[in-house]
Amino acid sequence: MSNELAGKTILVTGASSGLGKAIAIYFSTVGARVVLTGRNEERLHETLKDMSGSNHLYFIADLAKVESTQAMMDTVFANVGALDSVIHCAGIQKTLPLQALKEHHFDDIFNTNVKSAQFIAKFLRKKGRYNSQGTSLVLLSSVAAVCGEPAISSYSASKAALLGLSKSLAIELARQNIRVNCIAPGHVGTEMAIEFSKQLTAEQRENILLKHPLGLGKPEYIAQAAEFLASDKSCWITGTTIFVDGGYSAH
Ligand SMILES: NC(=O)c1ccc[n+]([C@@H]2O[C@H](COP(=O)([O-])OP(=O)(O)OC[C@H]3O[C@@H](n4cnc5c(N)ncnc54)[C@H](OP(=O)(O)O)[C@@H]3O)[C@@H](O)[C@H]2O)c1
Q1: Where in the sequence is the domain holding 71, given as residue range(s)?
Q2: Per-residue model confidence as pLDDT tens digits over 82-136
Q3: Largest distance between two CA atoms of the chain
Q4: Residue 2 pLDDT grade (very low, low, confident, very high; cuts 50, 70, 90)
Q5: Of 7, 44, 74, 86, which one has the greatest count of Cβ atoms within 10 A?
Q6: Closest approach atom of ligand 1 to CA 20
Q7: 248 in catalytic set
Q8: Domain assignment of residue 2, yes or no
Q9: For ligand 1, what atom is nearest to the CA of residue 196?
Q10: Residue 66's domain is classified under what CATH number?
């Protein structure tokens, strides 16, 4: 696989932290030109410093807002031309039992996790912005899309929405040779996962561990799945989800 991404131009959202950051760094080591996006410029700059090669760029965007997503996609196209892949990692998770849930929490989660993906696809589909020989859009879903847990119902619903979104986008964008797939990770020790764990009892943490027969995840496992989906090795795969979850969803 090692040079499958050499020479490809790949946009990674959520590149200021966690999985997006790990994917951006890994892709830079296998020869891709990576365009990073996130809201926090300082942290995007940190990611850039950890990357190999020198032709990578970053652009600030709040992907919960359509006009910001559009401006970012316009700027990316103006600076680097057509994209070979987009790995959409930006997302938020909030632990909210129903008693605490407010309308704005639900809206924040759906705007960041779902609306962003919908409009990235819309702005990617414009002529000249994708590689007509094959482009891959990868959305970061979660095992929470198919395995229930208490206090994360809005998050689970948003991650399940991505599974449906990717299937219909895969059909609609096949004529443009744009493939659309999801990666559904289990628990990987990023900032998001650490924040989530802090709100659990020791027993709940132990239960999470037990739900992963192969143990908890590492960011590189997700980066390797993203590499496959971004590469031509997956050229006949669209509208599907790869669960990278140590067996969590096998229960
Ligand atoms: N870690 C896990 O165990 C796990 C498991 C299953 C699924 N996932 C999914 O994987 C993805 C990445 O998770 P992670 O663990 O890497 O989380 P993380 O460390 O909290 O990173 C989240 C990223 O999303 C960006 N982001 C959040 N809101 C944004 C907005 N409105 N506009 C633009 N960017 C925004 C953040 O950037 P800024 O702060 O710079 O805006 C940050 O780079 C998420 O979609 C998550 O649901 C993670």
Answers
A1: 9-245
A2: 999 999 999 999 999 999 999 999 999 999 999 999 999 999 999 999 999 999 9
A3: 52
A4: low
A5: 86
A6: 16
A7: no
A8: no
A9: 3
A10: 3.40.50.720
